[in-house]
Amino acid sequence: MSSEPEDHSDDASAETTSASEVWSAALGGAARRAGLDPQQDVSAGRAVWGAIGGWRGILESVLPGLLFIVVYTVTIDPATQDGDLWLSLGISVGAAAIFTIARLIARQTVSAAVGGLIAALVAAGFALFTGEASNNFVPGLITNAAYGAAFLVSALIGWSLVGLAAGYLMGDGTAWRRDRRKRRVYFWLAIAWAMLFGLRLLVQLPLYFAGAVTALGTLKLAMGIPLFAPLVAVTWLVVRALYPREPQ
């Protein structure tokens, strides 16, 4: 007596859809909390300004790293060509801690500040454990590699992270995958984000291996918000263009 093999294709498809919906909700929720909801009736500039947290967000993002670079460069010993690592890291982490405490006192959202403090502490730990100032930038390099790979892989397998987030925010779910135009646009947006993170690695890794701490820190800041903000604006505008509003 023979039996027909069970067809699990529907189950696999359902599991894939379920997983994509979870990722879509997670990514879309994160984008919304960051102030990036394309359905909001605001300009791209205002949306990007909100996403980076305004002047306060810029300070929280830039100042700790800037202080590290300045203090380390100023304290470089001509004999050893090394700066005061402990002082540089102490001031950098201290600045991040002050931002976090200030938000706690003001009872404001602390996620960005806490994230910055944790990042500063982890980076300081890398540097202090190895005694190499350049290792202060290792977590950032790892983050860029991880994000770049995630965006690239998502584009190549047809599940663009940008598409998943936008689909959730725009009420499109994963239906965009059946729309050739949307799928193509989300593919290239994911590639653009992958290229951003890849460019950072391409420029910064040689400096890291060369131990060029000042140059590496300076370029990290220059390739941070100045590159991030324009790409956020482009992504925002393109997503809104894909979902034109009906005239009132």
Mean pLDDT: 85
Rough outline: globular
Largest sheet geometry: none
β-strand number? 0
Transmembrane segments: 62-79, 85-105, 112-129, 141-164, 185-209, 221-243
InterPro entries: UCP010219
Organism: Microbacterium sediminicola
Protein name: DUF3159 domain-containing protein
Tell me about this structure.
- It is a single chain.
- With 248 residues, this protein is an all-alpha fold.
- It has one domain (43-242).
- Helix content is 73%, strand content 0%.
- The protein is built from ten helices and no strands.
- Helix 3 packs parallel to helix 5 (111-130).
- The longest helix has 31 residues, at 180-210.
